[in-house]
Amino acid sequence: MDLAQLTQDLEDLRADAVAGVDGAADVATLEALELDVLGRKGRLTSVLRGIGALPVEDRPRVGAVANAVRQAVESAIAERGTVLRAGALEARLRSEAIDVTMPGRPIRRGTLHPSIEAMSEIAAIFAQFGFVVYESPEVEDDLTNFQKLNIPPDHPARDLWDTLYVDIPGLLLRTHTSPGQIRVMESTKPPIRALLPGRCFRYEAVDASHGFEFFQVEGLMIDEGVTLGDLRGLLDQFAHAMFGAGKKTRFRPGYYPFTEPSVAFDVECLVCGGPGCAACGRSGWMTILGAGMVHPVVLQYGGLDPERYQGFAFGMGPERIKMLRHGITDLRLFLENDLRFLEQFR
Ligand code: DAH
Protein backbone atom coordinates (compact mmCIF):
# COMPACT_ATOMS: atom_id res chain seq x y z
CA MET A 1 0.00 0.00 0.00
CA ASP A 2 1.48 3.34 -1.03
CA LEU A 3 0.43 6.96 -0.86
CA ALA A 4 -0.85 7.14 -4.42
CA GLN A 5 -2.98 4.01 -4.05
CA LEU A 6 -4.52 5.17 -0.80
CA THR A 7 -5.24 8.63 -2.20
CA GLN A 8 -6.88 7.03 -5.21
CA ASP A 9 -9.01 4.80 -2.95
CA LEU A 10 -10.14 7.88 -1.04
CA GLU A 11 -11.03 9.73 -4.24
CA ASP A 12 -12.97 6.66 -5.50
CA LEU A 13 -14.83 6.52 -2.20
CA ARG A 14 -15.69 10.22 -2.48
CA ALA A 15 -16.97 9.84 -6.05
CA ASP A 16 -18.97 6.74 -5.20
CA ALA A 17 -20.42 8.22 -1.99
CA VAL A 18 -21.40 11.53 -3.56
CA ALA A 19 -23.05 9.73 -6.47
CA GLY A 20 -24.97 7.59 -3.99
CA VAL A 21 -26.00 10.64 -1.97
CA ASP A 22 -27.21 12.49 -5.04
CA GLY A 23 -29.25 9.47 -6.11
CA ALA A 24 -30.82 8.84 -2.67
CA ALA A 25 -34.60 8.89 -3.08
CA ASP A 26 -35.55 9.54 0.51
CA VAL A 27 -34.23 10.58 3.91
CA ALA A 28 -34.04 6.99 5.19
CA THR A 29 -31.77 5.93 2.30
CA LEU A 30 -29.64 9.00 2.94
CA GLU A 31 -29.24 8.15 6.62
CA ALA A 32 -28.28 4.56 5.78
CA LEU A 33 -25.68 5.86 3.30
CA GLU A 34 -24.22 8.24 5.90
CA LEU A 35 -23.78 5.38 8.33
CA ASP A 36 -22.27 3.15 5.64
CA VAL A 37 -19.67 5.75 4.50
CA LEU A 38 -18.89 7.91 7.52
CA GLY A 39 -19.94 5.68 10.42
CA ARG A 40 -17.54 4.26 12.99
CA LYS A 41 -17.38 0.97 11.10
CA GLY A 42 -17.91 2.66 7.75
CA ARG A 43 -16.05 2.56 4.46
CA LEU A 44 -13.94 5.69 5.15
CA THR A 45 -12.64 4.19 8.37
CA SER A 46 -11.77 0.94 6.65
CA VAL A 47 -9.86 2.70 3.83
CA LEU A 48 -7.92 4.68 6.46
CA ARG A 49 -6.79 1.46 8.11
CA GLY A 50 -4.20 1.25 5.31
CA ILE A 51 -2.53 4.42 6.70
CA GLY A 52 -0.52 2.34 9.18
CA ALA A 53 1.46 0.80 6.30
CA LEU A 54 2.65 4.20 5.02
CA PRO A 55 5.85 6.00 5.91
CA VAL A 56 5.31 8.43 8.81
CA GLU A 57 6.00 11.50 6.66
CA ASP A 58 3.21 10.55 4.16
CA ARG A 59 0.55 10.10 6.79
CA PRO A 60 -0.43 13.82 7.24
CA ARG A 61 -1.10 14.12 3.50
CA VAL A 62 -3.44 11.14 3.56
CA GLY A 63 -5.13 12.70 6.62
CA ALA A 64 -5.69 15.95 4.69
CA VAL A 65 -7.24 14.07 1.74
CA ALA A 66 -9.39 11.99 4.12
CA ASN A 67 -10.68 15.18 5.79
CA ALA A 68 -11.51 16.72 2.43
CA VAL A 69 -13.38 13.53 1.42
CA ARG A 70 -15.28 13.50 4.74
CA GLN A 71 -16.24 17.16 4.31
CA ALA A 72 -17.32 16.69 0.71
CA VAL A 73 -19.51 13.70 1.62
CA GLU A 74 -20.96 15.51 4.66
CA SER A 75 -21.89 18.59 2.70
CA ALA A 76 -23.37 16.47 -0.12
CA ILE A 77 -25.48 14.68 2.50
CA ALA A 78 -26.56 17.98 4.09
CA GLU A 79 -27.51 19.43 0.73
CA ARG A 80 -29.41 16.36 -0.41
CA GLY A 81 -31.08 16.12 3.01
CA THR A 82 -32.41 19.66 2.71
CA VAL A 83 -33.88 18.89 -0.70
CA LEU A 84 -35.41 15.57 0.42
CA ARG A 85 -36.92 16.98 3.64
CA ALA A 86 -38.46 19.91 1.77
CA GLY A 87 -39.94 17.48 -0.76
CA ALA A 88 -41.30 15.24 2.00
CA LEU A 89 -42.92 18.22 3.73
CA GLU A 90 -44.38 19.40 0.45
CA ALA A 91 -45.86 15.93 -0.20
CA ARG A 92 -47.32 15.74 3.30
CA LEU A 93 -48.91 19.16 3.04
CA ARG A 94 -50.39 18.21 -0.28
CA SER A 95 -51.81 14.94 1.04
CA GLU A 96 -53.26 16.58 4.16
CA ALA A 97 -54.65 19.57 2.35
CA ILE A 98 -58.17 20.64 3.39
CA ASP A 99 -60.52 22.17 0.88
CA VAL A 100 -62.08 24.91 2.97
CA THR A 101 -64.49 25.74 0.18
CA MET A 102 -66.14 22.30 0.37
CA PRO A 103 -69.69 22.36 1.76
CA GLY A 104 -69.95 20.94 5.30
CA ARG A 105 -71.58 17.63 6.15
CA PRO A 106 -75.16 18.33 7.22
CA ILE A 107 -75.81 17.84 10.96
CA ARG A 108 -79.12 16.17 11.74
CA ARG A 109 -80.76 18.47 14.26
CA GLY A 110 -83.64 17.46 16.47
CA THR A 111 -86.73 19.59 16.81
CA LEU A 112 -89.10 20.43 19.60
CA HIS A 113 -91.94 17.94 19.89
CA PRO A 114 -95.07 19.60 18.48
CA SER A 115 -96.82 19.43 21.88
CA ILE A 116 -93.89 21.17 23.53
CA GLU A 117 -93.66 23.66 20.70
CA ALA A 118 -97.37 24.46 21.04
CA MET A 119 -96.96 25.04 24.78
CA SER A 120 -94.06 27.42 24.31
CA GLU A 121 -96.00 29.33 21.64
CA ILE A 122 -98.92 29.64 24.06
CA ALA A 123 -96.64 30.68 26.91
CA ALA A 124 -94.94 33.29 24.69
CA ILE A 125 -98.30 34.91 23.91
CA PHE A 126 -99.48 35.00 27.54
CA ALA A 127 -96.05 36.21 28.69
CA GLN A 128 -96.83 39.45 26.86
CA PHE A 129 -99.72 39.92 29.30
CA GLY A 130 -97.53 39.23 32.33
CA PHE A 131 -98.35 35.55 32.81
CA VAL A 132 -95.59 33.56 34.52
CA VAL A 133 -95.08 29.82 34.00
CA TYR A 134 -95.49 27.60 37.09
CA GLU A 135 -95.03 23.87 37.57
CA SER A 136 -97.32 21.54 39.47
CA PRO A 137 -97.01 17.80 40.24
CA GLU A 138 -98.15 15.11 37.80
CA VAL A 139 -98.87 12.74 40.70
CA GLU A 140 -101.48 14.73 42.57
CA ASP A 141 -103.66 14.16 45.62
CA ASP A 142 -107.41 13.72 45.43
CA LEU A 143 -107.89 16.79 47.58
CA THR A 144 -106.17 19.14 45.12
CA ASN A 145 -107.19 17.47 41.86
CA PHE A 146 -110.87 17.33 42.85
CA GLN A 147 -112.09 18.41 46.28
CA LYS A 148 -110.50 21.87 46.43
CA LEU A 149 -111.77 22.43 42.87
CA ASN A 150 -115.31 22.06 44.19
CA ILE A 151 -115.62 18.40 43.14
CA PRO A 152 -116.49 16.49 46.35
CA PRO A 153 -116.02 12.72 46.66
CA ASP A 154 -118.97 10.80 45.21
CA HIS A 155 -120.21 13.89 43.39
CA PRO A 156 -121.49 13.12 39.88
CA ALA A 157 -119.15 15.80 38.46
CA ARG A 158 -116.34 13.28 38.97
CA ASP A 159 -117.71 11.40 35.96
CA LEU A 160 -116.23 14.17 33.79
CA TRP A 161 -112.76 12.80 34.52
CA ASP A 162 -111.96 9.10 34.17
CA THR A 163 -109.13 8.84 36.61
CA LEU A 164 -105.97 6.75 36.90
CA TYR A 165 -105.22 6.08 40.57
CA VAL A 166 -101.84 5.07 41.97
CA ASP A 167 -101.26 2.43 44.67
CA ILE A 168 -100.86 4.97 47.47
CA PRO A 169 -104.32 5.87 48.88
CA GLY A 170 -105.37 9.44 48.16
CA LEU A 171 -102.97 9.86 45.22
CA LEU A 172 -103.75 9.85 41.52
CA LEU A 173 -102.35 10.98 38.17
CA ARG A 174 -103.72 14.46 37.65
CA THR A 175 -106.62 14.44 35.18
CA HIS A 176 -106.12 18.12 34.32
CA THR A 177 -103.78 21.00 35.14
CA SER A 178 -106.47 22.77 37.21
CA PRO A 179 -105.10 21.57 40.59
CA GLY A 180 -102.14 23.83 39.75
CA GLN A 181 -104.54 26.75 40.40
CA ILE A 182 -104.86 25.65 44.03
CA ARG A 183 -101.10 25.21 44.40
CA VAL A 184 -100.40 28.66 42.97
CA MET A 185 -103.03 30.28 45.23
CA GLU A 186 -101.58 28.50 48.25
CA SER A 187 -98.05 29.65 47.50
CA THR A 188 -98.52 33.16 46.04
CA LYS A 189 -100.40 36.27 47.04
CA PRO A 190 -102.50 38.20 44.47
CA PRO A 191 -102.17 39.73 42.00
CA ILE A 192 -101.67 36.34 40.31
CA ARG A 193 -101.09 35.74 36.62
CA ALA A 194 -100.06 32.13 36.28
CA LEU A 195 -99.68 29.74 33.37
CA LEU A 196 -99.44 26.02 34.12
CA PRO A 197 -98.42 23.83 31.19
CA GLY A 198 -98.10 20.13 31.85
CA ARG A 199 -98.91 16.50 31.22
CA CYS A 200 -102.27 15.03 32.22
CA PHE A 201 -103.56 11.47 32.39
CA ARG A 202 -106.95 9.87 32.01
CA TYR A 203 -108.38 6.35 32.07
CA GLU A 204 -109.56 6.82 28.53
CA ALA A 205 -110.34 4.60 25.55
CA VAL A 206 -107.83 5.91 22.99
CA ASP A 207 -109.15 7.12 19.64
CA ALA A 208 -108.47 9.93 17.17
CA SER A 209 -109.49 12.60 19.68
CA HIS A 210 -108.87 10.95 23.08
CA GLY A 211 -105.57 10.02 24.70
CA PHE A 212 -104.72 8.48 28.06
CA GLU A 213 -101.86 10.99 28.23
CA PHE A 214 -101.85 14.51 26.81
CA PHE A 215 -100.88 18.06 27.69
CA GLN A 216 -102.89 20.97 29.01
CA VAL A 217 -102.10 24.62 29.60
CA GLU A 218 -103.94 26.14 32.53
CA GLY A 219 -104.25 29.88 33.06
CA LEU A 220 -105.15 31.71 36.25
CA MET A 221 -105.55 35.40 36.93
CA ILE A 222 -106.60 36.71 40.34
CA ASP A 223 -106.79 40.28 41.54
CA GLU A 224 -109.30 42.76 42.90
CA GLY A 225 -112.03 43.66 40.41
CA VAL A 226 -111.26 41.09 37.70
CA THR A 227 -114.27 40.53 35.41
CA LEU A 228 -115.53 38.17 32.73
CA GLY A 229 -114.87 41.05 30.30
CA ASP A 230 -111.16 40.88 31.15
CA LEU A 231 -111.22 37.17 30.36
CA ARG A 232 -112.98 37.78 27.06
CA GLY A 233 -110.52 40.50 26.05
CA LEU A 234 -107.49 38.42 26.94
CA LEU A 235 -108.75 35.33 25.10
CA ASP A 236 -109.51 37.43 22.01
CA GLN A 237 -105.93 38.68 22.01
CA PHE A 238 -104.73 35.12 22.40
CA ALA A 239 -106.92 33.81 19.56
CA HIS A 240 -105.76 36.57 17.24
CA ALA A 241 -102.09 35.96 18.04
CA MET A 242 -102.43 32.19 17.66
CA PHE A 243 -104.85 31.85 14.73
CA GLY A 244 -104.68 35.19 12.95
CA ALA A 245 -105.77 38.79 13.53
CA GLY A 246 -109.45 39.45 12.95
CA LYS A 247 -110.61 35.87 13.57
CA LYS A 248 -114.11 35.92 15.05
CA THR A 249 -114.52 34.43 18.54
CA ARG A 250 -117.43 33.70 20.85
CA PHE A 251 -118.32 32.59 24.36
CA ARG A 252 -120.78 29.75 24.82
CA PRO A 253 -122.22 28.73 28.17
CA GLY A 254 -120.39 25.76 29.64
CA TYR A 255 -120.16 23.84 32.85
CA TYR A 256 -117.16 23.25 35.08
CA PRO A 257 -117.46 22.75 38.84
CA PHE A 258 -114.58 25.14 39.57
CA THR A 259 -115.84 28.16 37.63
CA GLU A 260 -119.05 30.17 37.82
CA PRO A 261 -120.09 31.19 35.27
CA SER A 262 -118.31 28.73 32.96
CA VAL A 263 -117.82 29.17 29.24
CA ALA A 264 -116.50 27.43 26.19
CA PHE A 265 -114.40 29.70 23.99
CA ASP A 266 -114.75 29.20 20.24
CA VAL A 267 -112.92 30.63 17.26
CA GLU A 268 -114.39 30.73 13.75
CA CYS A 269 -113.67 27.56 11.82
CA LEU A 270 -110.11 27.71 10.49
CA VAL A 271 -111.06 25.58 7.50
CA CYS A 272 -114.35 27.08 6.21
CA GLY A 273 -114.28 30.44 8.03
CA GLY A 274 -117.96 30.31 9.00
CA PRO A 275 -120.46 28.59 6.68
CA GLY A 276 -119.78 25.17 8.19
CA CYS A 277 -117.85 22.15 6.94
CA ALA A 278 -116.84 18.65 7.96
CA ALA A 279 -113.94 19.94 10.09
CA CYS A 280 -116.21 22.03 12.35
CA GLY A 281 -119.18 19.69 12.42
CA ARG A 282 -121.14 22.11 10.20
CA SER A 283 -121.22 24.67 13.04
CA GLY A 284 -118.72 27.17 11.65
CA TRP A 285 -116.92 27.25 15.03
CA MET A 286 -114.07 25.39 16.67
CA THR A 287 -113.82 25.11 20.46
CA ILE A 288 -110.41 26.18 21.74
CA LEU A 289 -110.71 25.98 25.51
CA GLY A 290 -112.85 25.96 28.62
CA ALA A 291 -112.86 28.90 31.01
CA GLY A 292 -114.80 30.85 33.59
CA MET A 293 -114.71 32.97 36.72
CA VAL A 294 -113.01 31.10 39.55
CA HIS A 295 -115.72 29.74 41.88
CA PRO A 296 -115.76 31.47 45.31
CA VAL A 297 -115.45 28.07 46.98
CA VAL A 298 -112.24 27.43 45.02
CA LEU A 299 -110.82 30.82 46.05
CA GLN A 300 -111.57 29.92 49.66
CA TYR A 301 -109.86 26.55 49.31
CA GLY A 302 -106.91 28.46 47.89
CA GLY A 303 -106.79 30.60 51.03
CA LEU A 304 -108.19 33.75 49.40
CA ASP A 305 -111.10 35.94 50.48
CA PRO A 306 -113.75 35.81 47.70
CA GLU A 307 -115.25 39.09 48.95
CA ARG A 308 -112.00 40.82 48.10
CA TYR A 309 -110.61 38.86 45.16
CA GLN A 310 -112.03 37.70 41.86
CA GLY A 311 -110.34 35.79 39.12
CA PHE A 312 -110.71 33.81 35.96
CA ALA A 313 -109.23 30.55 34.84
CA PHE A 314 -108.94 28.74 31.56
CA GLY A 315 -107.68 25.40 30.35
CA MET A 316 -106.69 24.37 26.84
CA GLY A 317 -105.14 21.41 25.02
CA PRO A 318 -101.96 22.36 23.13
CA GLU A 319 -102.27 19.28 20.90
CA ARG A 320 -105.78 20.31 19.98
CA ILE A 321 -104.55 23.77 19.08
CA LYS A 322 -101.82 22.30 16.86
CA MET A 323 -104.39 19.99 15.28
CA LEU A 324 -106.71 22.86 14.46
CA ARG A 325 -103.90 25.00 13.07
CA HIS A 326 -102.29 22.33 10.92
CA GLY A 327 -105.34 20.28 9.98
CA ILE A 328 -104.11 17.21 11.91
CA THR A 329 -106.96 14.77 12.38
CA ASP A 330 -105.53 12.16 14.75
CA LEU A 331 -104.35 12.91 18.30
CA ARG A 332 -102.49 9.59 18.46
CA LEU A 333 -99.81 10.97 16.14
CA PHE A 334 -98.50 13.05 19.04
CA LEU A 335 -97.58 9.93 21.03
CA GLU A 336 -96.39 7.55 18.32
CA ASN A 337 -92.93 9.12 17.79
CA ASP A 338 -93.19 8.57 14.06
CA LEU A 339 -90.46 10.74 12.51
CA ARG A 340 -92.50 11.15 9.33
CA PHE A 341 -94.94 13.13 11.46
CA LEU A 342 -92.51 14.84 13.82
CA GLU A 343 -90.10 16.01 11.11
CA GLN A 344 -92.83 18.10 9.54
CA PHE A 345 -92.46 20.54 12.43
CA ARG A 346 -88.94 21.72 11.54
N1 DAH B 1 -109.76 21.39 33.70
C1 DAH B 1 -110.71 21.39 32.62
C2 DAH B 1 -110.64 20.04 31.91
O1 DAH B 1 -109.69 19.37 32.02
C3 DAH B 1 -110.40 22.51 31.66
C4 DAH B 1 -110.76 23.83 32.24
C5 DAH B 1 -112.00 24.36 32.08
C6 DAH B 1 -109.84 24.52 33.01
C7 DAH B 1 -112.36 25.55 32.64
C8 DAH B 1 -110.19 25.74 33.58
C9 DAH B 1 -111.46 26.24 33.39
O2 DAH B 1 -109.34 26.45 34.32
O3 DAH B 1 -111.77 27.43 33.93
O4 DAH B 1 -111.58 19.69 31.26
Could you please describe the fold and organization of this structure?
The chain has 346 residues and is α+β, with helices and mostly antiparallel strands. Helices cover 40% and strands 18% of the residues. It contains eleven helices and nine strands. The strands form two sheets. A seven-stranded mixed beta sheet has the order 1-4-5-9-8-7-6, sandwiched between helices. A two-stranded antiparallel sheet has the order 2-3. Bound molecules: 3,4-dihydroxyphenylalanine (DAH).
Task: Name some characteristics of this structure.
11 helices, two-stranded antiparallel ribbon, 18% strand, 9 strands, 346 residues, binds 3,4-dihydroxyphenylalanine, rod-shaped, alpha+beta, seven-stranded mixed sheet
Topology at a glance:
Layout: H1 3-23, H2 27-38, H3 43-48, H4 59-95, H5 114-127, E1 132-133, E2 139-141, H6 142-145, E3 171-173, H7 179-187, E4 192-201, E5 213-223, H8 228-243, E6 249-254, E7 259-268, E8 285-294, H9 296-301, E9 310-316, H10 318-326, H11 339-342
Parallel strand pairs: 1-4
Antiparallel strand pairs: 2-3, 4-5, 5-9, 6-7, 7-8, 8-9
Helix pairs in contact: 1-2, 1-4, 2-4, 5-10
The structure holds 3,4-dihydroxyphenylalanine.
Residues 176, 178, 218, 256, 259, 290-292, 313-315 line the site of 3,4-dihydroxyphenylalanine.
